[in-house]
Each structure stands twice: as C-alpha cells, then as structure tokens.
UniProtKB/TrEMBL annotation:
Gene3D superfamilies: ATP-grasp fold, A domain, ATP-grasp fold, B domain, NAD(P)-binding Rossmann-like Domain, Succinyl-CoA synthetase domains. InterPro entries: Acyl-CoA_Synth/Transferase, ATP-grasp, ATP_grasp_subdomain_1, CoA-bd, Ligase_CoA_dom, NAD(P)-bd_dom_sf, Succ_CoA_lig_flav_dom, Succinyl-CoA_synth-like. PROSITE patterns: ATP_GRASP. This is Acetyltransferase. Keywords: ATP-binding, Ligase, Nucleotide-binding, Transferase. GO terms for molecular function: acetate-CoA ligase (ADP-forming) activity; ATP binding; metal ion binding; transferase activity. Pfam families: ATP-grasp_5, CoA_binding_2, Ligase_CoA_2, Succ_CoA_lig. The keyword Cell cycle does not apply. Residues 472-508 form the ATP-grasp domain. The keyword NAD does not apply. The lineage of its organism: Bacteria, Bacillati, Bacillota, Negativicutes, Selenomonadales.
Amino acid sequence: MEYQALFSPRGVAVVGSASPGKLANVLIHRLIEGGCENIYAVNPKGAGVGPVPGVSSFAPLKNLVDLAVIAAPAATVKNVLTDCGKAGVKAAVIITSGFSEIGNAAAEEEVLAVARQYGIRFIGPNCAGLVSTQSKLVATLETSPPQGNIALISQSGAVGGVFMALAKEQGLGISKFVSFGNGPDLSVIELLQYLKEDKETNVIALYLETVTQGREFMRVVRDVTLKKPVIVVKSGRTDTGQRAALSHTGSMAGSDKVFDAALKQAGAIRVESLEEMLDLCNGFSYLPPLSGKKVMILTNSGGPGVMSADKADQAGLVVADPSPDLKAALQAFLPVHAGVRNPIDLTVEGTGEEYQKSLEQALKEYDAALVLYIGTPYLRAMPVAEGVAIAAAGSRKPVVSVLQVGSDLSESLHFLRNHRLPVFPSGERAVRVLAYMAEYEAYKTRQLTVPAVAGDERCLAGKPSLLEPEAMALLQKNGIPIPEYYFAKTREEALDGCHTLGYPVVMKVVSPDILHKSDCGGVVLNIDSDDKAAQAFQTIQTATAGCDFCGVIIYPMLKGGREVILGLTRDLQFGPVLAFGLGGIYTEVLQDIALRVAPVSREEAREMIASIRTYPILQGVRGQAKADLDALADAIAAFSQLPFHYEDIREADLNPVFVFPEGLAVADARIVGAKA
C-alpha cells in the first residue's frame, strides 16, 4: 500500500514556504508541469501557488492526500510528519537536509520514530525526490524525463539528475526515479524489491556511495537479477579506508573489490561511468535477450569494422567467419568487391538494400549483429536505417547500430530509435553492450546456488589464534586435505616424529608469538637425517628465544605441486570474504587475486579458479601436468564455510597450498580469532 501512495498518490501536499524561489514553490511548479492533479500547498500562511490551493495545516486534507513532499526546515519535519499521520498521509518525500549527513543523527531518529508511529513510509531526508512518469508525478527538482521502462535509484540527487538529463537527450524513457538520500526508512533494498515486481520497469539502474546490510543487499540483488537486469555505478573505487586484514591477501581485498565481487556473484553489472550505464540501459531497454556470443559485424568501412571486431574479441564475444553456406548466400547478391568474412565489408558503395539482405542472412547464423554506417555528407543514411529496421524486426535478435555522417543523419537516428533499435556513438561501445547482455543471460542460465551453512561452534575458546597443529586438525575435521604431521615439544619427540613420517621432512616452529616463521629462522627444509633433525630443532629453539616456544611441527617435504593461497577475512559490509590466487610472486607482485563473498559452492569455486589471469598455469604449461582443479574447488568450498561453522574465526590464511595432479595438501595454516 505504501508504494501506491508513494508512486501513484490520490493527492500530493507540498510542505514549505510558497514564496517564489523557495523549494516548495519550485516543487509545486514541477508537479504542475508534469501533469499531476490534486496538489495542495501546506504552509503557515496557507498561501497557494497559482492554481494550487493553500492550507495552513493538514486538517482540511484528511483522506485527500496520500503523499507529502516536505521542503520545510529540518527542525519542523518531525511535527510535519505528526500532522501527516493524523491526516491519513501514508508516504512522504523529505527533501529537507540537515540530518545525519551533517552529524544530526538524533533528529533523523526522531523523524523515523514518528513515521513508524503513524505507518508513514518515506524517502530522504536530504534527497532530490522522486518521479513516476506513468502517474505524471514529478516530485523532484531534477529534470523531468520522458516515459519509459528504466528505473533509477540514486543515492545522489545530482547524479540522478544528470542521468535523466542525458537519457532525455538520447530519447531514453524513465519509469521511476528515486533519490533516497540518507535512507533511514525506505532504502535501496526495499526499493529494489518493489521494482522487481513493477510492471512499468524492465531495467534497473543504481547509483550508490555506500551499502549497509551487505548480505541482505546481495540476496535481494541476486533475486532481482534473475528477472530484470541491475546496472550499478558505485563511487569510491579508490577508497582504501576499509582494508581487509589478511596477512598476505588483505592488501588486495579492499572494500571496493569486495563490493565488486559481491555484485558479480549477485548477477548485477557494475560499470564505471554514467556513460556506460546509459549505454547498457539503452541496450537492455530496447533489445531482445542475447542468447549467445556469436556476433556479426556489418560495415561499409574497413577501419571501424576492424576496431569493433578487436573490441568484441577483447570483451569475450565470438567474431567468427561466416559458414560456407552463409558466404555463398552473401556472394549471390553482393558485388565482387565486397568482403564476406567477419566483418562483412560492403564498402562505401553499400546500399540500404544490401545492408538489409546481408543482415537478414547473417542473423540466421549469428546471435546478434552490429551495423556500422560511416557515410559522407552528400549521401543519405535513411535507406540503411530502413533496411536495418526491416531485418531486425524479422529476426527478433539484438541489432545495434552506429550511424555517422550523412545528409539526413538526425532523421535516420530518430527513425531507428522510434523502431526500438539503439544507436551508439562507436562500434566499441556498441559491442561492449552486447558483451554485457550476453554475460547477463549466461548468469541467469547458471543460477549458482548459495550453500546453506549451519553451526555456531567456537574453535578458539577466547584465544587470539590457533597454534598450527590446532589449525591443521581443524582443517582436517572440515574436509580440507592436509599432509601427515607430527607435533613435537622436545628434541626426542622431534626425532620420533621424523622417523614416523620418514625423511626428508620440514620442521617449523610452533609459537603464538610468531606470525612469519621464515623471517625469524623458524623453518628448516630438506631434513634427511637424525643429525640434521636434531640440529634443526636446536636451531629453531635458539632462533626463537624470547618467544613462547611450544615446540615444532614436522611435515614430509612436499614437491611437484602448484602453490596457491586461500584466505578468509570479515568485510565490514559483507561479512566473511574469500580470497584465492596463485602463491608467491603471482599474489605479491601481480595482485592476481579472485574474491568472493563466502560461502561459495563447488561450482562457484571452479569459476573463481578460472577467473584469475594466471589460470593457465594451473591447467599446465610446457608439458606440465594439469593441477587437480576438482580437488581445489572442493577445498575452496569447504574452506569458505569455516567462519559460519565457527563464529569466532576472524581471519584464516592457508599459504601455501600445494595442488598436485591428483589431490592437494595445505602446507601452512593461520587461523585468527575475533580477539586477536
């Protein structure tokens, strides 16, 4: 009910000074210009604005108004909402600033309490309002957009205004615009849930600066993207204020990278600019779904066609040559000088009819097509536009176009847009849209499951961290492969351990005081005799003097595997986060790390493995055997569940993990608790 009151109200009351130039006055004029009816001005003087009657209180408006648009001083907003509640108002847009954004959180809490008392749902405070084009509701200071099927939720009113202004220039229509401001009541999560079922909305665009309730946000986005595409611009990519704390991978797991990973897992598309967002909205708004990645490029100019093909290939699209049958079909009507590979090059002499026939034939074999027309000032582009429209209508496959130069260029562009065919400034931008559309459809097909993990055990019992033997035992208990090991507190026990495991072995110090064992001489490799084992124990004990020496842990020497690193930490927004990458220089220098919000399924772990740039090394290069990727995926999935089984785990670091052609083994483990 609150959403109908918000987006399709019976009446609207604008609260604030009605004097010319004041916000309330401007808002009333925007509502009038948009075609809204049943508008009332509410202010202490009872002053009206033009045809809009004025009242001094809400009492005369009881049961006449569903929505209040408030532009009154911050100190009065609480009382205004009280009056709204008594008059039966069910929704409010609080334009007024001066609340939590300037540190006045207490006043915002008071406003929220009054709203909850009377069952009023609101956006703001400190927002730019909302637009519902179907209802002719323009309750904002920003640009009034044309009607369409794109909904925009923006944390910044100014960014929303720029988006709508640019959309208007490009002929893109808006269904809903919401600037939610500080968002103590209606937040992006609830608005997304509403828009998922909104019949007027086919595409959802988000501009965000911060996210609260990260996991709930992720769950809702995942739910929405199975039905509608969600395109996100989030500012703060370079903010390093919230660093994850993993000893090796933490410096590469900043909050923005975690946010990026969360969006990918949820199926949303993150872009870097409003330009990209508009391009994608253009594609998703007008085009049918893209069911594959095979794209034909049709051009009359070689250079732009090649550049577009390069970009398509980089974006993961398939720019394959036509089949022999398609080549024969093209050669049957094209002149001999035309190129019939991919791109199909009609040359500057290409006619509208040749564009149409070539496109009709190509779309029988390809999943989508890009049409490039680079004209001259004396030639007409309209015949090409008309041919493209006819071919696209017959195929029901995505067709994107680039039209540049022509005596009737403006009319041609307008013609294509009227036929719901998006036109882009360049081929590179056009194929980028196709690539995102293909990726989105592939995501919906995969529908990766989120593992259900139950458990509230504690494994550290108040300790700051687990000793390595304890960490290894915990990993083994949870199905993560480890090598045989032996924990020895004395030299004699160490020798017994070496005999039990068999030489050669590695010996490492066990101490709660030592994090990086190699740095202090706490690791001895390739021990192959009793004499060397005794010397190694003495060397480690001496090197770690002054520390709490608990003994040594002994493993067989592991050889022949590929080294990888696994890490877990807790992000402030999304909770437990998983990191994976190759060990050594690949992590430290190349920063080749894949992040996911934990837990992950085995299937998602496989995608995580394949996403790193150095994945070919795991597949085997120069005659090397392929690493056991199934065993690695199983280990990643099991490891990702640890912080849910054991609530006191704050961080975990497995480095290195040796992955062999068959199986794997964790060679070192560090598990840290919340009190560390």
